[in-house]
Amino acid sequence: MAESPRSVLVVDDEADIRSLLSDLLTEAGYVVRKAKTGAEALESVAKDLPDLVMMDVKLPDQDGIGVLRQLKREHPDLEVIVMTAFGGSSTAIKAMGHGAYDYVTKPFEIDDLLATLKRVFEHADMSSEVSALRLELGKSAAERERIVGSSKPMLEVFKLIGKVAPSDATVLITGESGTGKELIAEALHRASRRNPHPLVKVSCAALPETLLETELFGHEKGSFTGAMTMRKGRFETANKGTIFLDEIGEMTLGTQTKLLRILQEREFERIGSNTPIKIDIRVITATNRNLSAEVESGKFREDLYYRLNVIHIHMPPLRERKEDIPFLVEHFLVKYRHAAGSIPTSISEEALTRLVDYDWPGNVRELENAIERAVVLSRGNPITLEHLPFGDRREAADRARMAGRRARLEGEADEADAEAVEAGSNGNGNGNGNGAGSFKERIATLERQLIKEALDRAEGNRTKAADELGIYRRLLYAKIKEYGLEE
Ligand SMILES: Nc1ncnc2c1ncn2[C@@H]1O[C@H](COP(=O)(O)OP(=O)(O)OP(=O)(O)O)[C@@H](O)[C@H]1O
Ligand SMILES: [Mg+2]
């Protein structure tokens, strides 16, 4: 290639990371410069503008997001990739919101990293309209952190939120009941420039057609019997903000037609009026139905479907991201511990394992309810199996027997027993592990077990195991080493 090599500035306070990236990128043909702190990075960029900055968001001297903002303010076209520790969801959203091109999580998956870099440069070649991605972020970072998740599918969701929040594009959120669709709608609104204006939520399932329409569009005085006064509808209240139409799949065809018109013309009339009202609004919808199937069967307007589905965010069911469960458990323990009057609550390893094993048809909502209940029942003592709502004892015993039989069939009973002993050996050696070990230790035990099982199922094929676990291969390697799971 005749063109001059691209330059990358690597910003990280850890010497290991700097040299790892430097070696890697140099080998891949980039010219690499390094900086240890935010100040050094700004200075280096001021002196000689690189093509790309790869930056840790945790810097010793200042907040990486602050550095990112300053960089983007001074050089809107400069591409920045941020590096976050595995699991930093809100940082990822924030960084994307402040114009970072992408983010990578540590430990790195090298192929992904190089692919990301390639994409950045392809993108930079194609367009220079990057600076459009600027946005006013809401103040409350703590609130945003309420969306717990560090699994690969959730990180993808966060990334998408960061990317689409600044625009006015209509978003359709799908996913099973209890997966957090409403939470995502809130996050989108908060991270958008409409944040100072209202987020109005309407459930299309709660009301029959005519009531839903008056609710949405409002009515004039005397427009129907009982309409004593003029009433503004929810669209009007939401002006300049966002309207969240939940359970959109329940909307009747008649109302769908009216909604379509609002989306097309950005205006509507109150019921009983001929005066069009203009509105400036962003529409977010959600459903747990399969809308395209509803379109097929004629229950949902196809043209409306395409209008709503400009950006699609799908919330994966909890059983497909089990690695989020321990973090959600911790999150809800804290949440309900406060509700229960700050009684410290912990959870036994056995109970946590059961929570991870369970299938969660009701997703995060069901998990949240289970923890809330357990916090109340355990009254400040560590939560154990008996506080969990998993059917009656017989069913639990049946399940255990089935599991045992399966293990024996596979001729692994002894091995499995040995595992169980090992897993329980974190101090007190008794099977139910009442509050033994810190939360971290218990998660580690569980993590080791999940990884071991995934590796077994994948017959040692690490790529397959990583896929199944929804984690990067590189992370799996690190964990295999950490837990001594090498053959
Ligand atoms: N990732 C998450 N982190 C923290 N809390 C979550 C998460 N996902 C869901 N929750 C909590 O679970 C509950 C259900 O979430 P939400 O109401 O957003 O689900 P939903 O997908 O809208 O469900 P439905 O389709 O039944 O309306 C809420 O209390 C929410 O705060
Ligand atoms: Mg909902």
Which SSEs are present, and which pair or pack?
Layout: E1 7-11, H1 15-27, E2 31-35, H2 38-47, E3 52-56, H3 64-74, E4 79-85, H4 89-97, E5 102-106, H5 110-126, H6 141-144, H7 152-164, E6 171-175, H8 181-190, E7 199-203, H9 209-217, E8 218-219, E9 231-232, H10 234-237, E10 242-246, H11 253-265, E11 267-268, E12 277-278, E13 282-287, H12 291-296, H13 302-308, E14 311-315, H14 325-339, H15 349-357, H16 363-378, H17 393-409, H18 413-424, H19 439-457, H20 462-469, H21 473-482
Parallel strand pairs: 1-2, 1-3, 3-4, 4-5, 6-13, 6-14, 7-10, 10-13
Antiparallel strand pairs: 8-9, 11-12
Helix pairs in contact: 2-3, 4-7, 14-16, 19-20, 20-21
This protein binds adenosine-5'-triphosphate and magnesium ion.
What's the story with the biggest beta sheet? Answer: 5 strands, parallel
Helix % is: 40-55%
- Radius of gyration over C-alpha positions, nearest whole angstrom: 26 Å
Mean pLDDT: 80
SSE class: alpha/beta
